[in-house]
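Moderator note: this is an archived Q&A kept for reference. The question asked for a predicted structure of one protein chain; the sequence and the answer are reproduced below.
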Amino acid sequence: MKCLFRVISLAFFMIGLAGFGAAHAQSYPGKPVRMIVPFAAGGPTDLFARVIAQKLAEMWGQQVIIDNRPGASAIIGAEVAAKAAPDGYSLLMATSSSHAANVSLFSKLPYDPVKDFAPISLVGTTPLILVVHPSVPVNSVKELIALAKSKPGQINFAGGSTSAQAGGELFKMLANVNMVHIPYKSNAPGLADLMGGQVQIMFDALNTALPQVKAGKIKALAVTAATRTSAAPELPTMVEAGVPGYELVPWFGLYAPAGTPKDIVTKISADVAKVVKMPDVGEKFRSQAIDPVGSTPEQLASYQATEIVKWAKIVKEANMKVD
């Protein structure tokens, strides 16, 4: 009889917990939410985050405040988010740099991109674009490979970000060519030198390079995604252009500190999915060459795991490790 009573009591207790969790999610958020962006205001990640934040604020009836914490390859902002209270009121708009590449680039990180965070949603992706100076006598990736093989070590490429450098390094690996990386503090001066002819090749962000392509200042050969992008559907993917296995796509993912209640994570994920499907949001994203996604937490976790492995291989073979 006592055992039966315990079983019944436990059942009612579990039902009560489930009800509490549902009520918890329904009442969230009850105050302003902070969205940490590990990059400076005005940059692509910041602009992207502000679109999401505005729509969530309208949906929730609470402010979603952008907190820019730039510096150290997104490490500063990610560390702030990792140490925030796991209550759903501090979120991080992470990127492929903070939550995939940094794992291999740095020997020590003040945060664990996997253990210290609860994935919420893969919000969007944006491919790189392979561009060359008009003086480079090629009009396709295959022609570029042939040129690079005929002039080993004489072709150079600009890299002002982790993704831009990795784009060139992955090309070197998969196409088996010898090119020289020219480092820059950011992509902007690298693109300027590409247009000026000081460097010959660059794997740049699509939204910054494409206007220069349309202006005739540089030539575009391919995009680095697995599928063609709506921003430039005429451009082939690197695979279509003759480099099997090539795929490198910077991405944006929303995370919360580890330990954030699952019901809150689930609610935010569902609401983000609704936001990225809004026509005006999709239009804004695509105008910046960003493809909206909106995934489940489980899908983001799986995607991140794959990306960490991919970046580890690139960093190791290209000797990109910072320390």
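Archived answer notes: The CA atoms of residues 100 and 308 lie 4 Å apart.
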